[in-house]
Amino acid sequence: MANIMYWEAIQRAHDEEMARDPLVICMGEDIGVAGGTYKATKGLYEKYGPLRVIDTPISEGGFTGLGIGASFLGVRPIIEIMSVNFAWLAMDQMFNSAAKVRYMSGGQLTAPCVFRSAGGAAHQLGAQHSARMEKVFMGIAGLRVVTPSNPKQAYGLLKSAIRCDDPVFINEHELMYNMKGEVPDGEYFHPLEGSEIARSGTDVTLFGYNISVHWCLKAAEILDKQYGISAEVVDLYCLSPLDRAGIKASVSKTHRAVIAEEDEAPVGVGSEVIAIINEECFFELDAAPVRVHSAMVPQPYNHTLEKAAIPDHEDVVKAVLKLFGKA
Amino acid sequence: MKLEDKKRVLREMVLHRRFEERCYQAYIERKIGGFLHLYPGQEACCNGVMEAARPGHDYVITGYRDHVHAIKCGADPKEVMAELYGKETGSSKGRGGSMHIFDVSKRFMGGYALVGGPFPLAAGMAKAIQLKGGDEIAICFLGDAANNQGVFHETLNMAALWKLPVLFVCENNLYGIGTAIERSTAIVHQHKRVCAYGIEAAECDGQDVEKVYAAARVAVDHVRHGKGPYFLELMTYRYRGHSMSDSRGYRSREEEEMWKQRDPIFILRDRLIAEGALTMAEFEAIEKETDAYIENEVIKFAEESPEPRVEDLEKYVFADRETQRPWLTGKAA
Ligand SMILES: Cc1ncc(C[n+]2csc(CCOP(=O)(O)OP(=O)(O)O)c2C)c(N)n1
Ligand SMILES: [Mg+2]
Predict the structure, then answer these.
(1) N or C: which end of chain B has fewer CB within 10 A?
(2) Cα separations (Å) of B304 from B21, B292, B299?
(3) Would you say the CB of residue B46 lies under 6 angstroms from ligand 1?
(4) pLDDT confidence of residue B331
(5) A252 contacts chain B (CB < 8 A)
């Protein structure tokens, strides 16, 4: 096991796959000579050259479509979109071309692309650089969506996404690239579907994904130490399709659920998980499930307002205490 | 340009330079957060164009490198700095930040973070001017790399088709973040890209404010007199990194030095000195006064201003409910 950073894990997955298959390429803004905004493609340009590590113009719609077109003929492009905020410009091609082509061609054509993008709110980047957009991607038929919460997942999900014949969107997080974690030394493929129990518990399930898994883990720690509440943390690293069985299993055990999301509440992961709970295990519930989420505002620049707009582990603790009638 | 205008513009450019350098310092001191894109090196572009236009009357829009454009349009430097400090007195009430300076009272219609986003917005404002019959024009300042967005071409086509009163100013500083223009763009000289749309275009040295002014006079007259859009390319250079987290590994120190030899402030200063209209001592006094103004008024105002209140987090998401009640409830009076 190597203890490496999230960005290093992503870089390693690129490197291994590009070494194995000459048709694996990567493309995006400033990914080549500059090595990537978050270093996720560091050193690849020097190793694989400009034909396979492509610095693109600022043409998200164009280069995303170009990557998808290349994938029609068997190329496996890993397309980096610098920030999810810019992915709006690429969504037409991602949604209308990549996600639908298999279906509308009756299975003749497929777009085995990987789209990677940095999501989440970092520090004071303002309204046009702080969007959390998982809710947008996870509602599109034909597109798989995963979101790694640690370096092992970042590595293993990218490896699987490159091999998978479906288009996969990988939602990363601006604040997590320098997070360290254990990654297997040998080749490892993380399943593109399912969920993971990040901490086992009996009294309440805390559902998180990506950065909110860490809020949940921290909250579980506090709940255990200070309040004697045993929280289970379920990591929903796959947002589409959501793991119905995993959600059902955990709620059937704990009978209570809190969903923590960095996104705003409407049409989000929380509403979706609660719908699944209703459909799968409503009669197992001891209390109504609760969402912890951002305020419904464009992200403010001011530091204090920004903090007020985005939840953290303390909000998760508060939600659980309320659920138990302790607050 | 008239002598007194040249002297005033020199003073303004010094303010623009020192303001930005002071932002740099404030960022290091963590008074300013987020992304910060600074303008030193490019001052002659905004100044030359806006001297030929009518600040406060013409509508101006730009990208995230927007402080100087706002100030040149008439925004109060104190309010711009307060915005960077995230204060309630800031030009966007602390909600926008560096990339989103707005002063609609001065017709500075904002800084936008998505590359290329302002192109069609500028054309849309020009459409409104056309409909309303005013003599204003819309001016869109953007960088070279923005021209690689599809919306650039979509906008040029519509602007030409409908003869919209819009001036596109391309500040070609040869880089888009860390990618040199030759590596991202098939043609370095951007004005050549617009001729297919039948749009008038010109290229000009962007370091000499008088040359920019002369070229912009032609451009502004063309647009204001109903002859349709115009595209003005200004060849320039940004001294600092793209934003604060840029160590400039993609270009050489020699190249930077070469451009600093053509500093827009020094070009104008030296010309005024050669003409006998200014002395070095006077110039140094301008710098001192500017620094004192920035410290004693601009920074002081930003420091002392209050933060927005957390209760107001949701203010400005929508129009005030009361004013919209008939339409929100279906009960028109
Ligand atoms: C749609 C979009 N894609 C990418 C970015 C990231 N980005 C910010 S500035 C920039 C470079 C723009 O260069 P240019 O247009 O030449 O303007 P300059 O910064 O040189 O003034 C990039 C790629 C963005 N903000 N928006
Ligand atoms: Mg540029």
Answers:
(1) C
(2) 20, 17, 8
(3) no
(4) 86
(5) no
Determine whether A313 is an active site residue.
Answer: no
Spatial separation of the C-alpha atoms in residues B149 and B323, rounded to whole Å: 38
| pLDDT value at residue B333 | 63
Q: Do A170 and A209 have their domain in common?
A: no
For residues A103 and A213, membership in a common domain is answered with no
Contact A59/B at CB under 8 A: yes
Half-sphere exposure of B202 (CA within 13 A, CB side): 16
Contact B167/B156 with Cβ under 8 angstroms? no
User: Are A179 and A206 in the same domain?
Assistant: no
Nearest Cα to Cα of residue B38 among B264, B240, B260: B240
Q: Residue A113 Cα, ligand 1 centroid: separation in angstroms?
A: 24
Residues with CB under 5 A from ligand 2 (ion): B 143-145, 173, 176
8 Å CB contact of A89 and B92: no
Whole-angstrom distance between the N-terminal and C-terminal Cα of chain A? 42
How far does residue B174's CA lie from ligand 1's centre (Å)? 12
Q: Where are the beta strands (DSSP E) in A168-269?
A: 168-173, 180-183, 196-199, 204-208, 231-235, 238-240, 257-264
A129: containing domain: 2-183
Residue in this structure with the two tokens 């291994």, named with its chain if needed: A16
Task: List, for residues B39-64, the tens digit of each pLDDT value.
Answer: 999 999 999 999 999 999 999 999 99
Asked if A303 is an active-site residue, the reply is no
* Choice among A60, A80, A272, A306 that is catalytic: A60
Give tens-digit pLDDT for B60-72.
999 999 999 999 9
CA atoms within 13 Å, Cβ hemisphere of A35 = 13
- Does ligand 1 lie within 6 Å of residue B145's CB atom? yes
Atom in ligand 1 nearest the alpha carbon of residue B172: 16
Q: CA B68, CA B75: separation in Å to the nearest integer?
A: 9
Cα–Cα distance measured from residue B20 to residue A237, given in angstroms and rounded to the nearest whole number: 43
In this structure, are A209 and A287 located in the same domain? yes
What's the one-letter identity of residue A262?
A: E
Rounded CA-CA distance B78/A66 in Å is 46
**Distance (Å, whole) CA A34 – CA A18:** 18
Per-residue pLDDT tens for A96-151?
999 999 999 999 999 999 999 999 999 999 999 999 999 999 999 999 999 999 99
Ligand 1 atom at shortest distance from the alpha carbon of B116? 1
Interchain contact A244–B (C-beta under 8 A): no
Q: Total domain count for chain A? A: 2
The protein residue whose alpha carbon is closest to atom 17 in ligand 1 is B143
Q: Tens digit of pLDDT for each residue in A282-307?
A: 999 999 999 999 999 999 999 999 99
Q: Is the pLDDT of residue A220 over 80?
A: yes
pLDDT in tens, B140-195: 999 999 999 999 999 999 999 999 999 999 999 999 999 999 999 999 999 999 99
The interface pTM score, or ipTM, of the predicted complex is 0.91
Q: What is the pLDDT of residues B235-266, one digit of tens each?
A: 999 999 999 989 899 999 999 999 999 999 99
Which residue in chain A has the smallest CA separation from B112?
Answer: A128
Q: How far is the CA of A86 from the centre of ligand 1 (A)?
A: 10
Q: Are residues A55 and A133 in the same domain?
A: yes
Residues A289 and A319: their CA atoms lie apart, in Å, by 10
**Burial zone of A288 (CB within 10 Å; 0-12 exposed, 13-18 middle, 19+ buried):** exposed
Find, among B99, B145, B188, the residue nearest to A55 by Cα. B145
Task: State pTM to two decimals.
Answer: 0.95
Confirm if B64 and B112 have CB atoms less than 8 A apart.
yes
Domains of chain B by start residue, with CATH: 3-329 (3.40.50.970)
**CATH number for the domain harbouring residue A244:** 3.40.50.920
